[in-house]
Design brief:
The structure holds three protein chains of three kinds. Chain A has helices at about 15-30, 30-50, 50-55, 90-125, 130-145, 145-160, 160-190, 190-200, 205-240, 250-255, 275-300. Chain A is mainly α. The relative contact order of chain A is 0.15. Chain B starts with a helix and ends with a helix. Chain C is an alpha/beta fold. Chain C has an eight-stranded mixed beta sheet, with helices on both faces. Chain C has a four-stranded antiparallel beta sheet with strand order 2-1-4-5, with helices on one face. In chain C, helix 4 (about 120-130) packs parallel to helix 11, helix 5 (about 135-145) packs antiparallel against helix 6 (about 155-190) and helix 5 packs across helix 9. The two termini of chain C are about 30 Å apart. The chains are: A mainly alpha, B mainly alpha, C alpha/beta. Chains in contact: A-B, A-C, B-C. Chains A and B meet through helix 5, helix 6, helix 9 and helix 11 of A and helix 1, helix 6, helix 7, helix 12 and helix 13 of B.
Chain lengths: ~300, ~350, ~425
């Protein structure tokens, strides 16, 4: 659109690649997204280097080693850089390996939800009719039940532990993904280029794959990137309540639950045990913040209304 | 279609969803073995193993699922919810004691959350890209990322541990004796309201005093979402063409923001506010556990750790009903406010 | 040709948009003159700055736009038609007072222009509430006085209402008096530019901006739930006025329509409502920004007829923006052709169609398919330039068939070639300087 075509070379790059670079550029223009990415990169590094920073002492690397059985937490020292929780579990170890747990939970839950949500949402949205109706009623029912309470109920029924928590969250979260994908598909389904594809004889499967999916993906991607943060918060809450991993496992929520008796500290020195309260919670906040910033940035970049401004 | 047919349709729909919720809850119960499910039918604490076997046979706990479902629904509709191990009393009785505590905190917190969220959101949208906007956005996103339990612990550590004010719990011991005495009439079972009705201002202030920190906790975490929504909704509203028309009519700044932009911007916020209110009832679990308030959230946490099946089932069912009802109310309010919805 | 009375004089207007990608130089020293009683057309391609020009005239340019230079002088004083005021000097409050009252605008998409959650009546009533409150109050008061009950509780209630309404009216009248006094002094000082006068003008503008001072009693009663009803007769007066207005615009069943919401009406009806809002206070100038581009041809004809009719009866001048030359030929007296933020040519419609001077205008007229089409349709090659980095010199030079070297270097001045026929092109400046 700038000057007459004879003065500008034709851009020969593939349009998909152009979109990608355009998106990447927009992404990094926003300072918040850079901060978010930095935070997450930091955590990724920690997770990868976990065996190096804190070599595991047991066969199960997620069991935190504890030196001694003294109940009161010990302050930070040369031996325990972050100090310890009650019963002398090393905080640094817990935090570092907890990073792995956190990533595991977040990615597994959201990944599984994406898959289920896309499958069911595509079914409901594209084929419509009775399949759609039934699925929608089911999601309505799931939506009506409060999340945390339901998770607790399910964990009671299924049993505790981190795996149970993961399964429970997958069970509870998939309706949201299904609905979003379905509504997007409903919008796209009626657009002309789909009818054109049908008229030219493409099979259903091909249409879904090549035409509908690339356009419907945006909302779900936005949802999933914003969802990882809340997933991890919920998992931490469940662990905090004692419904997640066992005591002494490297899981952030669990570590915070061990500090409840120590928030008041000794008379006259209210902040004696600040490290056991502050550090694990701060790490959780930072991690979730990173994902939320990333999710916000993804949403800003992919929101079709804001894209071309 | 006018407002009435809209309401009727939604009511029918609501019943359908409630049925679905009951089926879901029931299915969860069925995962557990009969021995544990027995507690739903028991009314006292001590039961011997023989009595248990007899009761399992009596209540047909080994029958096919659909039959049991029908029986269970029948029980519910008759008001029999079983015995709660954690509360050591029948579920209904425990509920009537615990629920007012939760309700009170929710009633005080929700308006604050909504108002703070709307105020900050409008502020951010109107002064877009100024330091104020950035500050509110940072506040929102950090508030959104904070774990509820951690913030609660920090608040206690600082205010109660360090400053010695705002203790956890529902009431101080001295006030508690007042409330449980025979002279104190419990009209509503809500402590602060009852205190006013009994003209005991010391109880009233004490109740508020204990509610301040948990309310602050809830406000910080939950207003973030409303704030973000309000901000984006307001920005969208401000960019619409009708704003231009209003300006061309000669509207002054105050009318432009209040009458035109905000009215349209508030629409999605109504829905979310309703959801927040419903969600708070269920989300009180953490807050009540940390601040030692014996409401249904606290009860749920205890019940979950001790596998108190009837308590859990009842609470899930109750919260599901509340959620559906509030959704209906929100939808009706929305239809009243936005004329475009009524025709759809 | 009789000397006509100027209504708006725009000179040297520059408006820029400060966007993410750069500064968009939307208007490049635009100049035009609109007279009383004429229909003025502005034509050009999309993006040439037609909308930005009129929005600058009303000072409702959207952020990130800003008017960065020039003068916009409006001659709105009914007593002294020679006295103009540069509205770029005035405050936002002043602009609010003339928007909707002296100058009104109607837009391209009527559906989007109406607020979806307010009824038609509420939206039209706003125009009255902003500018004609004193009149409405007066009407209400006389109506209540005429039908006043003689005695009893009804009389007390009626007296109560009357006294409150009278207080409100008094406040508006006092405010109006204050404004008139200030305006008179400002008119006298309009062209003075010494230090003392500027300070005085500043002081006066500040005074003028203060809102209407209603009595404390009125302010209080308006907040009390039941007593608030004293204003109901005022609402009824407004309703009656609005129904009359709708009827005069040819809208059938106006009582019913007034209670409806915008999404319940068709596009043509919505546009009529937008026109009703614009006309509620009898503006002197009506600006129509492509009002028919989104409507089908039959409705288009109706709206155009309506505007033509209104020009005879209710309004003085109309500025009509369009990209349709046929419409211009039909209803406009004079027309300006714009290109990429520049004014290319200005002339009477007859003169432009007969003898277009600017190559762009010539191209436009040639591009219109004619009744007897001999060869292929001629087009103007190339595309509209990017206004962040506009072409140097004359902005049209990259696409101009008759481009000369000077066109790339210098922006052409606007020359008058014939009575009232202005053109900005080096072809003609060269001629002039060639003796």
């Amino acid at each position: 659109m700038d000057t007459p075509s004879q003065e500008r070379p034709v851009n020969a790059a593939h349009p998909r690649w152009q979109e990608l670079t355009f998106t990447a550029k927009r992404f990094f223009k926003n300072p918040l997204s850079t901060i978010g990415l930095t935070i997450l990169a930091f955590f990724v590094v920690i997770a990868i280097l976990a065996p190096v920073i804190c070599p595991p002492k047991f066969s199960d690397p997620y069991k935190i080693p504890h030196s001694g059985w003294t109940i009161a937490p010990s302050p930070p020292s040369a031996q325990h850089i972050f100090g310890t929780t009650e019963e002398q579990y090393d905080l640094l170890y817990g935090i570092v390996w907890g990073t792995r747990s956190a990533f595991r939970i977040g990615i597994l839950v959201v990944g599984a939800n994406l898959v289920i949500g896309i499958l069911l949402g595509a079914l409901a949205g594209y084929f419509g009719g009775i399949v759609d109706e039934i699925l929608m009623r089911i999601t309505d029912v799931f939506y009506s039940i409060p999340y945390l309470v339901m998770a607790m109920a399910l964990v009671v029924a299924i049993g505790r532990g981190l795996t149970a928590v993961i399964i429970v969250m997958i069970i509870l979260e998939w309706p949201a993904y299904t609905r979003i994908l379905r509504s997007d598909i409903l919008v796209i389904r009626n657009k002309e280029y789909i009818m054109a594809a049908r008229a030219s004889g493409s099979s259903h499967f091909k249409i879904i794959l090549r035409h509908i999916m690339p356009n419907a993906m945006y909302s779900v991607l936005i949802l999933s990137s914003m969802n990882i943060g809340t997933t991890i918060l919920t998992a931490a809450a469940l662990s905090f309540l004692g419904l997640g991993s066992q005591t002494g496992t490297a899981d952030w929520g669990q570590i915070v639950s061990m500090c409840r008796n120590w928030i008041i500290g000794l008379p006259g020195h209210p902040f004696t045990y600040w490290y056991t309260v502050f550090i694990p919670g701060f790490v959780i906040t930072l991690f979730v913040l990173g994902w939320n910033l990333l999710g916000d940035a993804v949403r800003d970049v992919f929101d079709p209304k804001l894209r071309r401004k | 279609m006018n407002l009435y047919s809209f309401i009727v349709r939604r009511l029918l729909f609501m019943i359908l969803v409630l049925a679905g919720v009951s089926i879901l809850v029931f299915s969860i119960m069925m995962i557990l073995p009969p021995g544990q499910r027995l507690a739903a039918y028991v009314t006292s604490e001590r039961v011997t193993p023989e009595q248990m076997d007899a009761m399992i046979a009596k209540y047909h706990l080994n029958d096919p699922a659909p039959l049991q479902y029908v029986r269970w629904v029948g029980n519910i509709l008759r008001g029999q919810f079983g015995f709660s191990v954690t509360a050591k009393e029948p579920v209904i009785k425990a509920f009537s004691e615990y629920f007012p505590i939760t309700l009170e905190l929710v009633l005080y917190s929700t308006p604050m959350i909504i108002l703070v969220g709307i105020w900050l959101g409008t502020l951010g949208a109107v002064r877009k890209d100024t330091p104020i906007d950035h500050a509110t956005r940072v506040f929102a996103i950090v508030g959104y990322s904070l774990p509820t339990f951690w913030l609660g612990l920090l608040l206690i550590m600082f205010f109660y541990g360090f400053l010695g004010i705002f203790p956890p719990g529902v009431l101080s011991n001295s006030m508690r004796t007042v409330v449980t005495s025979s002279g104190f009439h419990r009209y509503t079972h809500l402590i602060t309201i009852d205190a006013i009705l009994n003209w005991r201002w010391d109880v009233f202030l004490d109740g508020l005093y204990h509610m301040f920190l948990p309310a602050l906790n809830l406000v910080i975490i939950n207003s973030a979402m409303i704030m973000r929504l309000m901000r984006s909704s307001m920005l969208e509203s401000l960019g619409q063409d009708y704003m231009m028309t209003a300006r061309a009519k000669g509207a002054d700044a105050k009318t432009l923001y209040r009458h035109h932009a905000r009215r349209n911007a508030l629409l999605p916020v109504i829905t979310v506010s309703g959801l927040t209110f419903a969600g708070l009832m269920g989300g009180m679990v953490i807050t009540e556990t940390i601040f030692n308030r014996t409401g249904i959230g606290w009860w749920m946490a205890e019940a979950a750790t001790q596998l108190d099946v009837p308590a859990i089932m009842f609470n899930v069912l109750f919260l599901g009903v509340i959620y559906v009802v509030i959704n209906l109310i929100v939808d009706i309010i929305y239809a009243y406010v936005d004329p475009r919805v009524r025709l759809g | 040709m009789t000397a006509q009375q100027h209504l708006v004089e725009v000179s040297d207007l520059s408006t820029n948009f400060y966007t993410f990608e750069g500064v968009v130089r939307a208007l490049n020293n635009v100049a035009l003159v609109v007279n009383h009683g004429e229909t003025y057309g502005i034509v050009g391609e999309s993006g040439c700055g037609k909308s930005v020009t009129v929005r600058s005239m009303m000072r409702i340019v959207q952020t990130p736009g800003r008017i960065d230079g020039g003068r916009i002088v409006m001659f709105l004083n009914p007593e002294d038609k020679e006295k103009g005021i540069d509205i770029l000097d005035r405050s936002e409050v002043y602009m609010s007072s003339i928007r909707g009252k002296d100058v009104s605008m109607i837009f391209q998409e009527p559906g989007a222009a109406l607020n979806p959650v307010l009824s038609i009546e509420q939206q039209i009533a706003e125009s009255y509430q902003f500018h004609r409150m004193d009149e409405m109050l007066g009407l209400t008061i006389s109506r209540l006085q005429a039908a006043a009950p003689k005695a009893g509780p009804l009389k007390i209630w009626n007296d109560f209402r009357l006294s409150l309404l009278r207080r409100e009216l008094a406040a508006y009248e006092a405010h109006g008096e204050r404004i008139r006094t200030i305006d008179n002094e400002l008119y006298r000082l309009e062209d003075a530019s010494d230090q003392a006068s500027r300070a005085r003008k500043h002081e006066l503008n500040h005074e003028r901006d203060k809102p209407v001072r209603t009595s404390r009693l009125v302010g209080f009663v308006r907040r009390v739930p039941f007593l608030r009803r004293y204003r109901r007769p005022l609402d009824r007066t407004l309703s009656a006025e609005i129904v009359d207005l709708l009827r005069s615009l040819g809208i059938p069943n106006p009582e019913n329509i007034a209670k409806r919401y915008p999404h319940e009406l068709s596009g043509g009806m919505q546009q009529r409502i937008v026109i009703a809002i614009a006309l509620a206070c009898h503006p002197t100038l009506l600006i129509a920004d492509e009002p028919t581009s989104n409507l089908d041809v039959t409705i288009q004809a109706q709206i155009v007829d309506l505007i033509r009719e209104l020009k005879e009866t209710a309004i003085s001048s109309v500025i009509f923006i369009t990209h349709d030359l046929g419409l211009v030929a039909e209803i406009c007296d004079r027309v300006t052709v714009m290109y990429a933020g520049d004014v290319a040519e200005t002339a009477t419609v007859r003169e432009l169609f007969r003898n277009p001077l600017h190559p762009y205008a010539q191209g436009l007229l040639e591009a219109v398919p004619k009744e007897v089409q001999e060869s292929t349709l001629t087009i103007i090659p190339g595309a509209v330039p990017n206004l962040i980095r506009p072409p140097s010199g004359c902005r049209f030079h990259p696409r101009c068939k008759m481009k000369m070297d000077i066109c790339e270097r210098e922006k052409p001045e606007t020359i008058e070639r014939g009575a009232g026929h202005f053109v900005a092109c080096h072809l003609y400046t060269k001629d002039q300087s060639n003796d």
